[in-house]
Amino acid sequence: METSFGPTAPLAIADAERSPLSLGQLVWLRFKRHKMAVIGVVILILLILYSVVGAFFFTEAEANHTDLTLKFKPPSSEHPLGTDVIGRDILARTIFGGQISLMIGLSAMIVQVMVGVLIGAIAGYYGGLLDSILMRFTEAMFNIPQLPLLLVLSKMLSDKIPSVNLFGREFSGSVVVIVAVIGLTSWMGLARIVRANFLSLREQDFVTAAKCIGASNASIIFEHILPNTMAPVIVNATLGVANAIINEAYVSFLGVGVMPPTATWGNMLNGAYKYIESAPWLWIFPGGLIVLTVLSINFVGDGLRDALDPRALVETE
């Protein structure tokens, strides 16, 4: 009996009085246990700082400045990452190229999420004939080869679309084409996930209660059901950024993506394969930045998938 009210009693009282963790705290608790995901976040922050803060030390004009007397200069104190085939500083170009590559990844992801969530939510909530039509359309979109379409449209439309001014920088029409094609051909998997969640959640009691108090369909979709399906949306969006960056690098490497002199990590690799041994810095630095970005995003996506797993959250609680 003494042990029931002895030294262990204060511990029992403290446990009883401890407030339960919020959903955000549970997610963060599980996420930080995923060491590679935390490392991925750190790397991503450093890459973003590299691309943003670096612009305070270089101008875009300096990144595009050519000097044939400096071509193929190896890394040195004057040019820490060396120079390319026409004497442009690779450090400055990776800084401004990173801005374009990351912007393309984020923009394409936003398009992908908007289309995927909208189609999946409408199909899952209304069901019936509308669901059948939207899902057949989704299945048809799966049959469209993304990369060949991206190559063809980038070649055909890049010169026909006017440049866009954003954040004080001018982006060529090829950037718009790449963002649109990647975003509009990557939403199908997300739409299926959102639809499956809506089919399950629309039968829940809280949806029935919302209908009983006169909530509109739009309110039920976006205010009641959608917040409860955000976990897979967030994970899919994270991985969509990595996919977009890889696709941009692919088409730019082939010479039909973002056109010079605008730099991206992808088009900096265009032609670098000719100098793999004689000038390895031409491909090591932009290629390494692409690899670091994609790997870190994938690590973060894996961490978010585990942290947002409802079963795991229950176990942690």
Written description of the protein model:
This protein has 317 residues and is mostly helical. It has one domain (23-316): MetI-like fold (Orthogonal Bundle). Helices cover 69% and strands 2% of the residues. The chain is built from 16 helices and 2 strands. It has helices spanning 2-5, 8-17, 23-33, 35-53, 60-64, 90-126, 128-142, 146-157, 173-184, 188-201, 205-212, 217-225, 230-253, 265-268, 281-307, 310-316; strands at 164-166, 169-171. Strand 1 and strand 2 form a beta hairpin. Helix 4 crosses helix 15 (281-307), helix 6 packs parallel to helix 9 and helix 6 runs parallel beside helix 10 (188-201). It is globular. The two termini are 30 Å apart. The model is unreliable at 1-5 (pLDDT under 50).
What's this model, at a glance?
With 317 residues, this protein is mostly helical. The chain contains 16 helices and 2 strands.
- What would you call the shape? globular
Uncertain ranges: 1-5
In DSSP terms (H or I, runs of 4 or more residues), the helix count works out at 16
CATH class: Mainly Alpha
Largest sheet: 2 strands, antiparallel
CATH architecture: Orthogonal Bundle
Strand-residue fraction? under 5%
Which oligomeric state applies? single chain
State the domain count: 1
Q: What's the helical proportion of residues?
A: 55-70%
Tell me the Rg in angstroms: 25 Å
CATH third-level topology: MetI-like fold
Query: What is the succession of H and E elements?
Result: HHHHHHHHEEHHHHHHHH
Could you report the average pLDDT, rounded to the nearest whole number?
83
Distance between the termini: 30 Å
Spatial ordering of strands, largest sheet: 1-2
Count every beta strand, where a strand is a DSSP E run of 2 or more residues.
Answer: 2
Structural class: mainly alpha
